[in-house]
Specification:
Layout: H1 3-23, E1 31-35, E2 38-41, H2 42-58, E3 63-66, E4 82-90, H3 92-96, E5 103-110, E6 113-121, E7 126-131, E8 135-138, E9 141-142, E10 155-158, H4 168-179, E11 184-186, H5 191-200, E12 205-209, H6 213-225, E13 229-231, H7 239-242, E14 244-248, H8 250-260, H9 265-268
Parallel strand pairs: 3-4, 10-11, 10-12
Antiparallel strand pairs: 1-2, 4-5, 5-6, 6-7, 7-8, 8-9, 12-14, 13-14
Length: about 270
């Protein structure tokens, strides 16, 4: 295991232990509303603190982009050589309701490109890892995207609008077109884990809009190292800055592209 990945695994497991202890009495967890339907808990903050403590001890000169405490992400900004991109608890709403679908996500970017990735599901003790050029793994077992080649046979993951200002009518159009063309749509509620599920073949594809870099940084590398493709709805590479992502097996990615490209923010925001 790459030394930087090993440190990320150590940090993820430390955060996972905090999350698991808190899940035993989730009713006692203090919850704060950041905005409508967007929550943060003391567990998010404690888990992030634990992650940062491990990472900063090992790599004090690396930049940090974290959901609860990190710097902002500016599109077009010159990237640092190494930047850790962290979501200490992806799926907070699930967690506070006792719905066991959430994870720790830690990605390392090297000059702006995914380099190391950890997605850890503490409820199942499932550890997804990837290193650039080294493949993707689930608990040390090599994983690959599925071999399905017809979208009509595929199970596709997605996310629903939940914040004020999200474009619900546009989402409804995308949901309709995808539901008519695949075997089923699922919305588990933790995008980092959804991307890991594409990488290991539990989902054949995934699409969502309105995400943040910490939702995608680790999952993006898992996808590509497992043989899949990831981009925005136009299939382009600036999905992490844009917050619009689509992923899948190579053949399914192309079929999803034909259905979703007209809904890409690149086209919606393009001046007439």
């Amino acid at each position: 295991m790459h030394p930087m990945l090993n440190i990320a695994v150590k940090a993820a497991r430390k955060a996972g232990n905090i999350i698991n202890r808190a899940s035993l009495d989730v009713e006692q967890v203090r919850v704060t509303r950041k905005q409508h339907n967007d929550f943060v808990t003391e567990v998010d903050k404690a888990a992030e603190h634990a992650i940062l403590d491990v990472l900063r001890t090992a790599y004090p000169d690396h930049a940090i982009l974290a959901e609860e405490s990190g710097q902002s992400w500016q599109e077009g900004e010159t990237p640092h050589e190494y930047t850790w991109v962290i979501d200490p608890l992806d799926g907070t709403t699930n967690f506070i309701h006792g719905f066991p679908q959430y994870c720790v996500s830690i990605g390392l970017l090297h000059k702006g490109m995914p380099f190391q990735a950890v997605v850890y599901d503490p409820t199942r003790d499932e550890l997804f890892t990837a290193s650039k050029g080294g493949g993707a793994f689930l608990n040390s077992r090599r994983i690959r995207v599925t071999r399905r080649d017809r979208l009509a046979d595929c199970l596709i993951g997605t996310g629903f609008p939940f914040r004020d200002g999200d474009d619900l009518p546009a989402y409804m159009q995308m949901f309709e077109v995808m539901s008519r063309n695949c075997a089923g749509l699922r919305r588990p509620g933790a995008a980092a884990l959804d991307l890991a599920y594409v990488a290991c073949g539990r989902l054949d594809g995934f699409f969502e809009r309105g995400l943040n870099p910490w939702d995608m940084a680790a999952g993006a590398l898992l996808i590509t190292e497992a043989g899949g493709l990831i981009g925005n709805f136009n299939g382009e590479a600036h999905f992490m800055e844009q917050g619009e992502v689509m992923a899948g097996t190579p053949k399914i990615f192309v079929q999803m592209l034909k259905l979703l490209s007209e809904h890409s923010l690149d086209r919606v925001r393009k001046p007439a």
